[in-house]
Structures are given as C-alpha cells and as structure tokens.
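Bench notes, bay 3.
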Amino acid sequence: MSAHRCGLADAADLGRTPIDVTAVLDHLVAQADTAAPTSIGFPGAVDLDHREVMARLGHRLWNNIGDPTDTGGTAHTRILEQAVIAWLADTLAMPADDRWGYVTTGGTEGNLSALHAARRRLPTARVYYSAAAHYSIPKIVEMLGARGVVVEAGVDGEMDYDHLAVRVRRHRRWPAIVVATAGTTMTEAVDDTTRIRAALDAFEVPGRHVHVDAALSGIPLALDGRLRLDDDSGIGSIAVSGHKFLGVPTPCGVVLIRDSLRRQAAPVAYTATLDSTVTGSRCGLAAALLWHAIATHGREGHRWRVSEARRLATYTVDQLTAAGWPAWRHPHAFTVVLPTPPATVRAKWLLATDADVSHLICMPGVTQGQIDAFVADLTALRGGLAPGDPHLPRSIPRPRRAPSPAAGIGIP
C-alpha cells in the first residue's frame, strides 16, 4: 500500500509489515517539492547545491567528537571544521590569538555554549536580553539556572537602550551578560553593541560579557564589514546558523568565543579528546557541508548573494506597497514586514505570523516570480473586498527611527 493511499503516518508505522520504504521517501520529497514555491516565510537559502557532498560523504558516519583541534580517530572532518572556523573568524576580524569555536547543531546550541562559558566566568551575572530575542535565550537562561532580565524592544524589533540602562542601574551590583541580536525573528533588527556597552559603562558593572545571537544576519553583516569581533568591539562571543544563509540541508551553525574568556576543557581518556563542546559527538557531515558552501563560492560569491537578496527585498517592499499592502524592511535585511494577510492567502503561502504582523524573507534562491505571484494573490484579494472589510490590511507599526544601514554593531 502506497504512502499516498493510506497516509504518511500509517505508511511510516514501524509496526506494519511490510513497509514500503520507497513510497514513504517519495511522499516526503513530493510534499516538500509541492510546498517549496510558496514557502517564503522562513530563513533557509535554497540556491546552493550540496548534492556532491551528500553523495560522496553521506554513506557513512563522520563523527567530529571532542575539540576541533583534536587529531584522534579517522572518520572525521575536523580539518574542514577548523577551516570553517578560521574563515568565519577572519571574516569577523576576530583576533587570531584569541579565538575558539566549533560547528554546532544550530543557533540554539551556539547560544547555549557561549552563555555557559560566560556564566562559568561570571556565575552571579544577570543575563540581559530583549523582548525580541530568539526564544532560545530565555530557555537557555532557565537551563543554566541564571537570573534573566528582559529589556523592552521597539516596534522595529531593536532593543530599547533607555530601558536597558534602567535595568542595568537596578542590577548594577552584579556582573552583566548581555545578549544582543543581529537579526531578530520577526523584523531582522540588529541591536547596537556600542549603545549596550555605553549602558554598562555608565553604571560600572563589575564584569561583563556581550554575546551576539547572529543566527540569520551574522554572515551577511560580517561580509559587509558591519559586524566585527575585533578588540575594539567588546564582543565576547557570537553564534550563527549554517542552514540559513548558507542553506546547508541539515540544521547546524558555528559558535565563536574568545579563547581568553573560557575555561580549558577536560580530557576524556577513552576517546583521546578534550570535552570542550556541548554535545561531545558532533556532525562531521555538517562541517563538510559548511566548508563546501564556502569553498565553492568564496567571499565575493557570497557578497553577491547578499546583494541580490537585498535587491529582491527592496523590490518586494515596493510591490507590496503599490498593491496597497504597506510593507517595510531594515536596510540591511532580507526580511519584509507586512500586515498579516487573511487566512485564505496564508493557507497557500507559508509566512511567519505574530498576531497582526507577518513577514516573508527574501533568502537567496527566492525568486522575483515567487514575489510577483504572492503580490498578485494579495491584489486579487483586495480587489474583491469592499471598503471597511475586516480583511483589508491594517496599518502596522513602523520603525521608531530610520535604521542605520550599518546597524551599529561592532563597527570600527
């Protein structure tokens, strides 16, 4: 019995005999292929071809257990992992003598690794993060048993620095770990680490660590030279995703931490490795995929991808606005913010929605044809609505000020 006839859940039930494995896999691929043309709401690039790596390495286990600098074992890709770390650290202008990192399972593990290192050094610190921070941050704060301090964010998603100052003043007796976001979930806002540092300086907090959750925007901003981790930046760590801008077909990411800000790892005798990472065993295939994406396109190729994605985002704002659906974006962003369309449109188009606000993301690989089709559906819907119809777009909050293209984060 095929997966199409009995439903995927029944076909995949491992209690059945026999199981049509081919039919189940075909069903999954067909579902994904059908959804792809209208999936414009979530940040995964779809323009890079990773099939060569999957074909040549996907038949066996590649286990990058331990620290990326370990040499034990045979079936690992630590050399490629080291190259990825070096490329990203160089792109971020991170000092060569004060860097460490590894390939993670994604942005959440990167945030956990960095905040764990920061809290081991500053065990009584308050962890400040904005209301627009990724949902992993309060989860990690709870996991670490730390005290979290939520800071308000503006309607554009950027941290409210006046409120940060109020919060820091109240807790100034304790060290501060501050999570800045480079690419908030709904609006792709970027927090200004210069203003964060000014708030910490004003109240002379006894110890600090600034971490940047840059899952979406970190690599594009680094390629611009707008995000830097040099000595002047005051940034202690950063986490980026690999399955977003680099479009790797498995969740992954990279965390970078200043080597001087972390404790040395303990050796594990039976694996002949250092236990320096959160998970221990790590996906060597992910490191190879990241390396492949970087090696085959290089900095200039990826800069071109950034510029094309931003060009399409600008086009999208213009087309939506002309169609009567007011939209906006931060100048650096792939993300376009718009009033939430009616359910009939959202049933076809996969958007990210939070109450009255939705977004689509012009990731590399999203085409102008997709945008034109989306706008056409909204135009057709609007044309059939009478004035005052509740399905007409409502006004949405706009940025409180014109965002700086440079975003202010770690800029020299």
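Next record in the batch:
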Amino acid sequence: MTADAPPAVARRLEDLGLTSGTTVEVVRRAPLRDPVVYRVKDYELCLRRAQAACVLALEIA
C-alpha cells in the first residue's frame, strides 16, 4: 500500500487479497475508465480509481 493510503482503505484492500507479492491483472475497464475490474489470485475484484491509487504496483512486461 502507498504511505498516504487511509488506514481503513489499506486494511480493506489487504483483506481483499492485495498483499505484497500478489499478481494483479487488469481484466476490463468501464467506458469512462472507472471502475476497473482486476484479477487477484483466483477471483475478480472491482475497484474505483481512488481505491486503486492506494495500491503500489510494479509492471512486469
């Protein structure tokens, strides 16, 4: 999580499976680019841009 993520949001995202070392894949975006559906582990997760901005991610080519 980013350092400026609100504690409640950071905790919720961790509870949803967004932990260190987890692979996350973008599945699809809404027409106005918000929200976005991500594949996390073996399920899909829909997040708004404000929530997703709290996740620190590295792109692997």
